[in-house]
Amino acid sequence: MSLSSPTFWTALVIVLAVIAGVVRLVLWRRKAEPQGPRWRTATLMGLTVLAGLLLWLTLNPPASVIRTGPLIVATAGSPGTIPTAPGDILIALPEAGPVAEAHRVPDLATALRRYPTPAHVRILGQGLTPRDQSPLPVPVEFAAPPLPRGLTDLALPEPGAPGATFVVGGQIGSLPAGTVELVDPADEIVDTARVTTGERFALMAAARTPGLALFTLRLRDPSNAVVEQIAVPVESLVQTPPRVLVLAGAPGAETKYLKRWAEDSGIELTVDIDVGGGVRLGDPPLPLTAQTFNALDLVVLDDRRWEALGGGQRAALTAAVHGGMGLLLRPTGPLSAGTRRDWANLGASLTGGDEAVPFRLDPPEDAMPEAEAEPADNADPLPELARRDLTDEGSGAVTLLRDADGAALASWRALGRGRVGVWTVTDSYALVLTGRPDRYGEMWSALFSEIGRPGDHSRAEVLGIARAGQRVALCRLTGQPNVLGQDGRPHALRIDAAIGDRACAAFWPEQPGWHVIRDGEDRQTPFYVQPADAAPSLVIAANRSATLALAGTAPTRAASTSTSHAPGSPWPWFTGLLVVLSGLWWFERNRDVGGLVASLRARLRS
């Protein structure tokens, strides 16, 4: 007990009061001994000490031992009658139906505050909703029910270009067999797939015109009855083609076929070849200034052209990369010591020999129908290509493409807000000449998309599927954002700074339909809110999976009951204190106790 604690000073005051009372009785006895028997003084002293002890126990009641069993939590789908044992605590969350003898609580956190010492938590029914899916400090027991018959997973398409193909993927629950179909806004079936229990599916379609559209995903059983359906919102945006500049030190087939592929893909690509002596080939040359580089998304640069750039042009190029532009370095021959040093300053620390080594690409997955089958007859064999024997020795390099032996063909690393990549393949055009333009396009598309300037990330992000009446998280917000609902009224959003740098806010949509997120710069991101009863199997499966994960991360179960100490009640001790003080008062008021006792005995005899 610390000298500065209130408990110490309380005890000291009580002890001093008891000592003072005992001393008073002793002094009174010496002065007035003939006025009463000695046992009366002893009784008064005993009652005084007892009163002090009871006062201490009233102010500091001893802790009581509490033995509790599990906290049984009834969720949606729980039975109406749940058997319990002595010590069990049965509660029902709001989504649970009528449960006999259960204590209703608004959420699981409230239950844990009311009953803070359960041996473990046993969850019954379909599982916890997102409101209660927080880590628990006690063991969690959850016997997961069977998966529902309908959809258990769904991936909605991202915004795409008009006419581009989008994919809707998902998974089926316990339905033995059925059919999923994708229906366009005109109620025409555009794609179907047969599914069985637990099978995944992918349906494809295309939105022909820019704007917003609602497709419908339906799941039917073998009798063609609709099991579930949900709206599939599709947004088509007019895409801005990337702006790419190819700077080469000599003409070659690589730049020629890259130019053709870019034109076929709708990419705005400019080729600038400097052969020396003031002669430049290709497209009309652009001024290599900071203004030009800042307007580009990607620059593809070989070693010869790098050596021909002036100091100001290199500085402008480097500054543009720091500002977000991508730079793809393409070694075409042995690198000089100065070029290696310059590229190392950009983050590309290359080591290895200067030779060209042959390699082969992995065959595409669709070229092997079975694990040990021969390649398909209509698939041309992949040719042997060549690459520079160079390796990025830095630990922060991200490998983008590898050959069949695992050697890196392309890697990149961040530099400021942009990326610097290295592409060591010298004759990728051979894929086109040998009938594999698809692999050629796949590789260059990956290079352009990963290393080029990032796209427009000013659009907000909706986490998960928004439903009416349920909380949805909106992220990547800026300024003071708000949401325009179906009624046209703006609903202000408050960004939660505790989440981190994702800039997220919570929103509770009241009505289904299209909503629009507006940020501080009036940039708009539309999103669709599903009706509350759309595809309920998705909600059941999500709650089931989250509760299973919660049970897996909780502490292991140790005992069926737990023992804890709770603050005791002061009322019994206070009642005893009142009785003792009343006795003291009575003894003080009636000093001739002996005469009173003799009088009572005489009355009883008569």
UniProtKB/TrEMBL annotation:
Which species is this UniProt entry from?
Brevundimonas staleyi
Tell me what this protein is called.
Answer: Carboxypeptidase regulatory-like domain-containing protein
Q: Where is the composition biased (Acidic residues)?
A: 364-377
Q: Where are the transmembrane segments?
A: 6-27, 39-59
| Keywords per UniProt | Membrane, Transmembrane, Transmembrane helix
| Entry-linked SUPFAM superfamilies | Class I glutamine amidotransferase-like (SSF52317)
Q: Where is this region: Disordered?
A: 354-382
